[in-house]
Amino acid sequence: MIRTFGKYARLLGNLARYTLTRELAFRGNFLVKVSVEVLWLGILIAFFRTVFAKTNTLAGWTEPQYFFFVGCFFAVNGLIETLFMENCNEFAELVRTGDLDFLLLKPIDEQFLVTCRRVDWGTAPNVIMGFILMGISLVQMGWQFDAVRVAIFLLTFLCGTIISYCFMLLLTSLSVWMVRNQSLMEMWWLFSSLARYPKEIFAGPWGAPLGFIFTFLIPILVVVNVPSNAMVRMLEPGIVLLTVVATVILLWLSRRFFQKALRSYRSASS
Amino acid sequence: MTPPDSIGATMPTNEAIKSSSAAPSPTDSGGGEPPIHRRPWRTLRKYATIFRVSLSERMTYRSDFLIGTTLRFLPMVTTILLWQAVYVGSGQASLAGFNYNEMIAYLLLVHISRMFSSMPGLAGGIAREIREGTLKRYLTQPVDMIGYLTSYRIAHKVAYITMSFIPYAILFFICRNYFETFPDPLTLLAYAISLILAFMVGFYFEATVGMVGFWFLEVTSLLYIVMTLNFFISGHMLPLDLLPQPWQGILKALPFQYMAYFPAVVFLGKVRGMNLVYHLLGELAWAVFFLVLARFLYRRGLRRYGAYGG
């Protein structure tokens, strides 16, 4: 068990180093990718600055609290994009061309190989930018250091990232049946739009039931909400527990689904 | 990595064809030369065929498309909820002249604007043809590149709009209460015109960006920056009226507002009378401006075109 874990950790480290070398061979491209992300964060900030010029609170979140949320979202999303997005996005093409055969033949776990093959260093600075934004908002709201909150934040932040990964894996697996799932990147963007806002906005006659569904049945809302809530608003042990349980269940479920998808893979045109 | 001599060999050929490609002469079609008066008909049929082939290509992967369209509504759900929270939080009925219903209607309508004005893959495609050298097929065949791409794109848009019609009709039906008044026929006509012009502004703007590929072989990076920025400055995320003053004035002077903001406010009846006419003329002017610019860059670009890749 430990040896297997060590092997995969070493493998991941080597893959990360290899992709970094590749990335640095095209430094200009890398810089452009980073500047697009900076631009995007700038747009998000401009958008919410405009909104908060018209209102003091948004669904009970003050401006600094909200920017902490935005920073948290940016960091989680950055982590997902850095580690998994590009790999999952390529999966449909591997299925369509039949090149997936080569990955299946290797003596390494298929899920690991399909989802962790490459590290997209271009989006890695997003994680840092997200943490900087979170730091700035903490200073702005005069946050008092609290070790328990930090610990729970880190735990739920990790859980949130894993939950996002599981959802991405579920979406990716669909391409085995759909063959062309070129728009995974877009689909992911659309799906993750649910995680982009505080769950308190899910109010009203149809908003509240949706909020319930996306918290308890398809727990995408907990991804950013729970860590940010634990850090800058109230600490709710119940929902923290739910997040941890959901992480375990989703990890198992998405892996099962992925393996089921692989069994349906017909290795076309090979 | 093309050997220099092959570039030298193809260059004069390109030069020779380039002069005739813009206005195809009867000799272009090789064998049976059509009489002069039948030429427009043949040209039309040629582009109609391109249209038909592209249309059936678009219809091949339907499940991909359907899931995509359904998921596309999710952000709309969160947008409605977000703005509901904004209006509740502000305690005001109207923000920058938009009440809550108008705001949601606006944010729904920008989807329609973007349906016409967004051109996924256009600039990148042009840049790739330049980089890989496949551009020369437009130089050796009696098809004008911009004309071909226009037919192709219109086909994609027709397929896309036809297939999205039902999901969008359902969406607008569910959200019908956000539309307080239905525009009068004249406004609708202006709306239709503004959408067609939005297509033209969007198309020729992206084509122009793609032509930059003649000078810089890698434009995808530039394109990413432009498209990301466009998302905000076209008014896709929020009405430009909400922005503080210097920015609002600047963005309303730029062509990008015509790709999302302008058609939506026309539908909502926020631009009326002579103001509407001036703005439509302005939109037309930008469309023509980018059309001319794209063609100009294309001609200038062909002079430096190296026909890489064999």
Describe this structure in words.
The complex is a heterodimer of chains A (270) and B (310). With 270 residues, chain A is an all-alpha fold. Chain A has one domain. Helices cover 76% and strands 1% of the residues of chain A. Chain A contains twelve helices and two strands. Chain A has helices spanning 2-25, 27-54, 63-97, 100-104, 110-116, 124-140, 147-173, 175-178, 184-192, 207-217, 222-232, 237-263; strands spanning 57-58, 61-62. Chain A has a two-stranded antiparallel ribbon with strand order 1-2. In chain A, a hairpin with a 2-residue loop joins strand 1 and strand 2 (61-62). Chain A starts with a helix and ends in a 7-residue tail after the last helix. Chain B has 310 residues and is mostly helical. Chain B has one domain. Chain B contains 13 helices and two strands. Chain B has helices at 4-21, 39-58, 62-71, 74-90, 100-117, 122-132, 136-140, 145-174, 185-211, 220-233, 245-253, 261-267, 273-304; strands at 94-95, 98-99. In chain B, strands 1-2 form a two-stranded antiparallel ribbon. The longest helix of chain B is centred in the C-terminal third of the chain and has 32 residues, at 273-304. Chain B is globular, with a radius of gyration of 22 Å. Residues 1-36 of chain B have low confidence and may be disordered. Chain A binds chain B through residues 28-29, 32-33, 35-36, 39-40, 43, 46-47, 50-51, 53-59, 174, 178-183, 186-187, 190-191, 193-194, 196-197, 200-204, 207, 210, and chain B through 61, 63-64, 67-68, 71-72, 74-75, 77-78, 81-82, 84-86, 88-92, 95-96, 218, 221-222, 224-225, 228-229, 231-232, 237-238, 242-244.
Distance between the termini of chain A: 35 Å
Count of DSSP-assigned helices of chain B: 13
Strand order in space, largest sheet of chain B: 1-2
Number of helices of chain A: 12
Structural class call of chain A reads mainly alpha
Major beta sheet summary of chain B: 2 strands, antiparallel
Main sheet record of chain A: 2 strands, antiparallel
Poorly predicted tracts of residues of chain A? none
| N/C terminus separation of chain B | 10 Å
Strand content of chain A: under 5%
Give the oligomeric state.
heterodimer
Order of helices and strands of chain B: HHHHEEHHHHHHHHH
Greatest contact between two chains: A-B, 42 and 37 residues
Specify Rg of chain A, calculated over alpha carbons: 20 Å
Portion of residues in beta strands of chain B equals under 5%
Q: Which consecutive residue ranges of chain B, at least 5 long each, have pLDDT under 50?
A: 1-36
Radius of gyration of chain B: 22 Å
Q: Secondary-structure element sequence of chain A?
A: HHEEHHHHHHHHHH
Overall number of domains of chain B: 1
